[in-house]
Amino acid sequence: MSIFTPADHTALIRRYFKACNEADHATLVDCFTPDAVHYFPAGLPDIPWRGAETIAKKWVWCVETLGSQWTIEKILVSHDSPEAVIEWTHWKNKSGTALRGDEWYRFDPQTGKIAEIRAYYAAPADRSVTINEWVDFDYAGRGYHLKSA
């Protein structure tokens, strides 16, 4: 059982987004367990991002290179498990584009830090793949359906 409350998880997500927007490497690292994983849909290079250091470096790069800024649109936090779901917008200011999506967060019950993020994009499906899913995510091991019913 986790000693961390939904309010703790909400505060950490807000801290994480503030650190992303400020390209604050040290705070970003501190938001995650050392072995955290950030999963993404197919289409980005070098995914998933593994480890707090890697996640922090990649977001700092996005701010510096793309002019990235993020807004949190909604946060829903579980009252009985260390998980949350958010809706966000990723503003890529240098190109004048944006991406909307959701993320599912899993928090470490002992430290309260982010152990995993699974990103969903509000974007067209990738027609070049049979199943649109996160790259290198253990669907079978997590009990996900591997075929339709």
UniProtKB/TrEMBL annotation:
Top-level division of the source organism's lineage: Bacteria
Domain named SnoaL-like: residues: 13-117
Record-linked Pfam families: SnoaL_2
Signal peptide: none
Annotated protein name in UniProt: Nuclear transport factor 2 family protein
Species this protein is from: Pseudaquabacterium rugosum
Lineage: Bacteria, Pseudomonadati, Pseudomonadota, Betaproteobacteria, Burkholderiales
